[in-house]
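queue> pop job 88
queue> type: inverse folding (structure -> sequence)
queue> payload:
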């Protein structure tokens, strides 16, 4: 091989080296954007060092401005596979301030010890799973009067919310509340309290579920106790 051919091949090799793509930065994606306590969070990572023990730290803050830091927690170390990837599942924790917040913002940071200056950061929402009916705050119902129903954190149970009026073990009526919306499965709906004739005075229990026919054993539900006055 003469000098010209060797120079040409060397030039091709140099171009190949220059054209080689740079290593990808670490990245993590989640299966959803919002989770209620106890929900499974599936994290899929890529771009980490092969076999690296990836550490996780989650910082919580209020979603409203100005934000308030609510502390942090550390997840278990995740081992990346030989391709620098992982898939791991973790249960969503309880809210930091469940008595004050319906939702909190989570800043989830995954750090490769071999590349600590380039962590993968992903943001998600931690939502309480709860119902709120301000008109029933004192547990006193006013049949026929207006109320507003608020639902939070119905992330996995279904897409349409129903309320079931029970007195003792007898169901008197099921009402379609409305469609749960957004990543967290929330709802705000104006309704009439006890929309049926002459509800009996005394203690009632109103169940909320995403099923038309409530199965207390198998369905996910939340119940509120109210009292119909004489």
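queue> result:
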């Amino acid at each position: 091989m003469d000098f010209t051919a060797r120079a040409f091949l060397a030039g091709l090799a140099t171009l190949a080296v220059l054209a080689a793509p740079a290593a990808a930065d670490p990245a993590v994606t989640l299966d959803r954007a919002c989770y209620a306590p106890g929900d499974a969070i599936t994290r899929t990572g890529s771009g980490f060092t092969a076999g690296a023990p990836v550490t996780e730290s989650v910082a919580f803050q209020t979603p409203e401005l100005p934000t308030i830091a609510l502390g942090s927690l550390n997840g278990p170390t995740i081992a990346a596979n030989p391709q620098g990837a992982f898939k791991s599942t973790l249960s969503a924790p309880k809210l930091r301030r469940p008595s004050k917040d319906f939702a909190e913002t989570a800043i989830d940071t995954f750090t490769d010890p071999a590349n600590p200056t380039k962590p993968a950061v992903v943001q998600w929402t931690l939502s309480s799973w709860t119902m709120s009916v301000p008109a029933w705050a004192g547990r006193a119902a006013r049949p026929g009067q207006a109320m507003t129903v608020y639902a939070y954190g119905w992330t996995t149970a279904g897409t349409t919310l129903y309320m079931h009026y029970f007195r003792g073990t007898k169901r008197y009526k099921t009402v379609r509340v409305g469609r749960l919306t957004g990543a967290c499965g929330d709802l705000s709906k104006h309704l009439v309290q006890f929309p049926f004739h002459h509800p009996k005075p005394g203690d009632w229990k109103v169940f909320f579920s995403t099923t038309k026919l409530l199965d207390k054993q198998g369905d996910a539900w939340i119940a509120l106790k109210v009292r119909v006055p004489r």
